[in-house]
Design brief:
Blueprint lengths: L9 E4 L8 E2 L26 E11 L4 E10 L5 H4 L1 E6 L5 E11 L2 E4 L7 E6 L6 E2 L3 E6 L8 E9 L10 E5 L6 E10 L4 E5 L6 E5 L2 E11 L17 E5 L4 H11 L8 H13 L3 H15 L1 E2 L1 E2 L11 H7 L1 E2 L1 H14 L3 E7 L19 E7 L5 E4 L20 E4 L8 E2 L7 E10 L6 E10 H13 L2 H12 L6 E12 L4 E10 L4 E2 L6 E6 L2 H4 L14 E2 L5 E9 L9 E6 L3 E10 L4 E10 L3 E2 L1 H14 L5 E6 L9 E2 L2 E2 L4 E2 L16 H11 L4
Parallel strand pairs: 2-6, 3-13, 9-19, 18-20, 26-33
Antiparallel strand pairs: 1-8, 3-4, 4-11, 5-10, 6-7, 6-11, 8-10, 12-17, 13-16, 14-17, 15-16, 21-22, 21-24, 22-23, 24-25, 26-27, 27-29, 28-29, 30-31, 31-38, 32-37, 33-36, 34-35, 35-36, 38-41, 39-40
Helix pairs in contact: 4-6, 5-6
């Protein structure tokens, strides 16, 4: 996992304070894996005070059992707290946990620490704050007398595969990470041939026959850590990854999903009545689509019960309608069922919210999806996509924002390939700052009008619904305090929401006590800086010339920031204009002075054209960025006593006007709101399922 999100844990102890776990000898089918206590790795790369000597994963597909062994050395005292606690998660609805060994190796001796009565069984809902409950259990044991230099060696088996897959096995394994590992071993035993695929130089397995079974073994030793780079796209598979799957095609995954999403009962009277009310109240097909979408998004609250097959199989539309909650697959099936009852073609569709185009390189399997949405085809044949888990969306049915998931697999018999999805949204943000400056050296009044479109409007609408006006006002004040000293809000932000057009406007008003600041290294000079902060917050300058990974861009994205300054006196300002066109973005800058009203107008605009910069294009892009970095802002300056500028002499002659400054660096960076999706992705990676 490239990003580990910090989660709040709701912990419920079951069966009292202590509970006995099952124990047994190591299964006879497991092959002992040797490892070195002194691997050839750079110990300066270690983090958190531990060295993982062995990561061993062996799976017997016929017995539906996974054997895990972890061997970790404690390097210093700081690691004892974490290394001395063993946690193993499993799903009790279809899995059984059995521990085999827990040993501490110290000075050539082995200390047996497997005491079944010392275990605690906990129910830890790691994603409860995001309304996801997977029912998993955690067996936890705290080891006594752990010391620096100890090697902790433990192993266990988890018996049972999720029955939803009906014996079709698939999984993924990583062979590196952000800390070095002495040895990584993956071994699979199967009575049928397996499809496998490795990424980034992962070698082919060692193949063997053992007791009539196909044996596949992958081993990596002295594993060096990955190099972390900021803004590496989530879809970029830059690590050694192994995929294994028994599914022979994406069509077979579709057939699996059709059976899992099959509606085995007619719609209930209550649900049918609700659909009939929608039909009676509307005549237009688009209105009906909109009504159903609004109902599923706003009236069916998001909550997922993911135990066992619940991670993949939706509840029936009748149950979801009655209980008024569901996760992504529940909401999607309900929405599709309601639309079909209205004679509108609709299907649930599986997506991966982060893999995007990389999903095309994966082996077919349902475990590589983490989300479910809806595809709708109107009577004219036009296609629309909707995410029923998003709330507070604006826009008509034809212009509802759909995230850039890129590819989706429609759950419809006969489908053999992905739908390619192009976002219709521009996600424009328009900000207009108006400064009215008092006399020179004094304060100013700042009025800000921000207009949000598409996904940006959806996000702001949800933000205003989830926060009090007082809290928002304080947060806005705190934000502008980064730019101006002693700034106070004059009134609460004023919200105007055109839901149908999905256009949300916010007006703010502030008083700045002292907007002028002394210029650095310039005696008797004061200045005012004007920064397009809506763009400034998006951007940063590359600090390296070359990269190993692509750079994520905020896409689709269009930001316009206009600044109007009412000056307290005449200024000698020259108009300027500049534009930059790049294959990944367009940039426009314009400065205009209107002398008869002493008004300065600044225009900054940037529009992304791609969602990333390739490694090959990075150097060229970096040069463009550095050329622009001195133009993202404007400063005016004068003497501290307000004397005539035309009479003030500098070393370079008469000081007359303002200058462009390097207020911030420039590059478009990704700012995707995950709301709850990050947590959903973490849950998916941990155990599988659609959220």
């Amino acid at each position: 996992m490239r990003i580990q999100a910090l989660s709040l844990f709701l912990v419920f102890c079951l069966c009292g304070v202590q509970a006995q776990v099952k124990t047994s000898q190591i299964p006879t089918w497991v092959t002992p894996t040797e490892y070195s206590q002194s691997p050839a790795i750079d110990k300066n790369e270690l983090s958190q005070g531990t060295l993982q000597l062995l990561r061993d994963n062996q799976t017997h597909l016929v017995k539906e059992t996974v054997y895990i062994r972890q061997v970790t050395q404690v390097i210093d005292n700081a690691a004892i707290q974490e290394a001395g606690t063993i946690n193993v998660d499993y799903d009790p609805t279809f899995q059984e946990l059995v521990f085999h060994e827990i040993n501490i190796l110290r000075n050539s001796s082995s200390i047996d620490k497997l005491q079944p009565n010392n275990f605690q069984l906990l129910r830890r809902e790691a994603n409860a704050e995001n309304y996801l409950y997977d029912g998993s259990m955690t067996a936890m044991v705290n080891l006594s007398d752990v010391r620096p230099g100890d090697i902790i060696d433990y192993s266990y088996s988890i018996k049972g595969f999720n029955p939803i897959h009906k014996g079709l096995f698939s999984n993924s394994y990583t062979f590196d990470g952000y800390s070095p590992v002495g040895k990584i071993n993956v071994r699979l035993l199967s009575n049928k041939p397996l499809k496998y695929k490795g990424f980034n130089g992962l070698e082919k397995p060692f193949l063997n026959k053992i007791n009539g079974l196909n044996e596949y073994t992958w081993t990596s030793t002295d594993v060096t850590p990955l190099t972390y780079e900021e803004y590496d796209p989530a879809w970029n598979i830059n690590y050694k990854l192994l995929l294994v799957s028994a599914y022979d095609s994406w069509a077979s995954v579709v057939n699996w999903a059709v059976n899992v999403y099959q509606e085995n009962q007619p719609l209930s009277d209550d649900l049918s009545s609700h659909i009939e009310q929608i039909a009676s109240a509307t005549e237009d097909e688009g209105e009906r689509i909109q009504k159903v979408l609004d109902f599923v998004q706003e009236d069916i609250r998001y909550l997922g019960l993911e135990e066992g097959i619940g991670g993949y199989q939706p509840f029936s539309p009748n149950q979801v309608y009655e209980q008024r909650f569901g996760d992504c697959k529940d909401k999607s099936l309900l929405m599709a069922s309601m639309l079909k009852q209205l004679d509108i073609e609709a299907y649930p569709m599986l997506v991966n919210t982060t893999l995007k185009q990389s999903i095309l390189d994966f082996l077919p399997s349902p475990i590589f999806f983490d989300h479910c949405v809806v595809k709708v085809i109107d009577n004219s044949g036009k296609v629309y996509y909707y995410d029923p888990t998003i709330s507070s969306q604006g826009g008509s049915y034809a212009k509802t924002h759909f995230p850039d998931y890129r590819y989706g697999l429609v759950i419809k018999r006969g489908v053999r390939e992905f739908d390619q999805i192009s976002s219709r949204s521009e996600n424009k943000v328009e900000v207009k700052d108006e400064y009215r400056l008092d006399s020179i050296g004094k304060g100013a009044i700042l009025k800000v009008k921000s207009v949000y479109h598409d996904a940006k409007a959806d996000q702001m609408r949800q933000y205003f619904k989830s926060q009090s006006l007082n809290a928002i006002n304080k947060e806005y004040e705190k934000y502008y305090a980064n730019y101006f000293y002693n700034i106070k809000s004059i009134e609460h932000p004023q919200l105007t929401d055109d839901v149908l057009a999905n256009r949300l406007q916010v007006i703010e008003k502030y008083k700045i006590d002292s907007i002028w600041q002394p210029m650095e290294d310039k005696k008797n000079l004061i200045e005012v800086q004007f920064v397009p902060n809506s763009i400034d917050g998006l951007l940063f300058i590359p600090n390296v010339e070359h990269r190993k990974n692509p750079v994520s861009l905020d896409y689709p994205s269009h930001h316009i920031h206009d600044i109007t300054v009412h000056l307290p006196a005449a200024w000698d300002i020259q108009s300027e204009i500049e534009s930059v066109e790049h294959d990944s973005f367009d940039y426009q800058y314009r400065a205009t002075y209107i002398p008869f009203v002493n008004q300065l107008k600044l225009h900054f605009e940037i529009k992304s054209k791609k969602d990333h910069i390739t490694v090959e294009k990075f150097s060229d892009y970096s040069r463009k960025v550095n050329d622009l970095s001195n133009k993202l802002g404007y400063v005016i300056y004068t003497t501290s006593d307000g004397s005539s500028l035309t009479e003030f002499e500098t070393g370079n002659g008469t000081l007359k006007i303002v200058g462009l400054i390097a207020v911030a660096a420039l590059i478009i960076m990704i700012l995707v709101v995950r709301s709850n999706q990050s947590a959903r992705n973490d849950a998916y990676r941990r155990r599988g399922g659609f959220y």
